[in-house]
Structures are given as structure tokens and as C-alpha cells.
Amino acid sequence: MRKEKQSQGLIFTASVDRKMLHQRKLPVCFVLSILFEVIFHVSARHVMPYVPDVLHPPVPDHIESFNLTQDANGGEIDPEMTPGLFQGDMALNNDLYNYWRVGIKWDAFPEKLWKNGIVPYMISPLYEPTEQVTILKAIKTFNFMTCVRFVPWDGKTKDYLLIWPIKYPKGCWSFVGRFGGSQIVSLQPPDGSGPNCLGSEGRAIHELMHALGVFHEQSRWDRDKFVKIHEENIIPRYKSNFDKQSLDNTTYSFEYDYDSIMHYGKHFFSKSKSKPTITTKMGHTKKIGQRKAMSKGDCLKLNDLYGCLSNSRTKRKYYNLCNFMGI
């Protein structure tokens, strides 16, 4: 049974059993959850306080037809990937795509970062309560570990994130940096028709990191010192997903991070489950491509990107949080 709701002239369809999360309490289900609630009060009543006037977000420019999780040759594609988007899960407009082709120094494009680190957001009511909780847990992680602040959209601010289960292209994907206006972060629920983006808060964190301006770790210009790309094992039409940025236009203050939540996994876009597309060097033996939590490096890079480490009053605080809470 389904029903239609109308708000501000917009009609949208929702399942009767998908009640707003503000009708339920958040479970205490991860480390320091209570502390997060006390300090930041990221409340479920803010899941969707306003209905946007228009729910027709800009379609990413770089999309082709695709299968969701498996290539015709039997090769595996990670469930978070949406083949056809840039590097699998990054939606770029043409300008940003051209910037990336020569690399990006975010200090040269400050307009692509969220002003003062404030990120208004709204979560679709189409998610089940447990799915909304997963998204809120990811948001609380940013609010606790960094000086970036996700705040419920007030219905007036021009630029905000709209976290929504987009029908096309399905999958887990985001624009990179602040795009402007109503900016989609697509997190597909486990409906059997595509990737499960909400199996853990880690996948939500990954896409929100993109929205904050963070690219994939293995796209760094210096990556060849640390990983080997096996082009012969990559599904041909996805080889461009392994492009890297240029040295002249990129700056990194931190070492290459194998543990990054932004790193590709060993078999991403592989022709076969037995053929890795990316392997580690430097004697590194840990599994790459984890989607559990921010690494220490992820945390430090994001704090550095938004100036959290340049302030002497907050530098030690965020260094300690990253080292203590990052994996």
C-alpha cells in the first residue's frame, strides 16, 4: 500500500511503513555514539524538515550505459561503483572534469570547497529508518573528527546536499566538491536492483568525502611509487578510471595512504575475480579498498583541506582525534 504526500506544491510518493526517523530514537550502536549526540546533537528530526521545490538535480555529464556490479566477462565491479560515472562514483560537470584532467589544487579553486566548512544537508524520507540511521552515523563521524560541520538544511540556504536514492544512474555517487544549488549525493538502499550503498556508514562516508572535495587516493600523481596498476587486467572501457593527476597542479601534505577509505580495492574493474587491477608495493600487506571508516590519513587530509590544522587552537585537538579514531 502506498500513499502520496504533498508539500509546497510538490507531490512525492513514499511507502506507508517508511515513517520519518524523528518518530524513533537512534540506537547506540557504535563507539562514542552517546558522546556524539551530546556534543553535536545531530538529531533524526532533521531528516527532512523541508521538501525542496524541485527534485530534478543536474545529471552528471560523463555517463554511459552500464551494468551495475558485474561485467559481461564475469569480472567483478565493486558494489559502490556506478560504471559510466568518472572513476566509477564521481559525477563531474564539464568544467570540473577539465580541471581534473590536469589535476586540482583546491587552493586554486576555493569556490569548490564548502564555505567555512559548513555543509547544509537534507536526507530523503524514502529511506527506511535503519538506512537513515546509517547516514546520520556517517554525518556524526565528520562532525566529531573534523572541523567540517554538517547542519540540517534550513530550507533557505542556496547550496546544500540532498542525500537521495536516485533512480538513474543508480548506485553510490557524488559530485566532487561544492557544485552549487541542490547537490545530489546518491546512496542506493539494498532493493535488489543495484549496489547497497548503506551496508555500513563507511560507504556513506566515502561519498560524502567526495562531496567535500576529496578524490580517490590511487589517483595521486605519486601513486606509482606505492601501487602497481595492472592495465592488462582492467576491463578496457574502464581503464580511464585509473588515470592519475599531474604533479604540476596537485599538492599533498601527507604520505600515500593504503588504508584510505578513498582507495580502490584490489579487484576494482577487473576482467576476472582472479586478476587484480591494483596491487601494493613498499612491502605493504594490508587489504586496500576498506569501506569501514576514515583512516588517520583521511581524517588529517580533510582537516587540512578545510583549515582545521592551520589554527593553533584546534590543531592538536584534530591531530589527536584523527590519530585516536582513524583506522
TrEMBL record:
Zn(2+) binds at residues 206, 210, 216. GO terms for molecular function: metalloendopeptidase activity; zinc ion binding. The active site is at 207. Residues 102-309 form the Peptidase M12A domain. Keywords: Hydrolase, Membrane, Metal-binding, Metalloprotease, Protease, Transmembrane, Transmembrane helix, Zinc. PROSITE patterns: ASTACIN. GO terms for biological process: proteolysis. The keyword Zinc applies. Its cofactor is Zn(2+). It holds the Pfam family Astacin. InterPro entries: Astacin-like_dom (IPR034035), MetalloPept_cat_dom_sf (IPR024079), Peptidase_M12A (IPR001506), Peptidase_Metallo (IPR006026). Its EC number is 3.4.24.-. It is an enzyme of class 3 (hydrolase). Binds 1 zinc ion per subunit. The chain crosses the membrane at residues 26-44. This is Metalloendopeptidase.
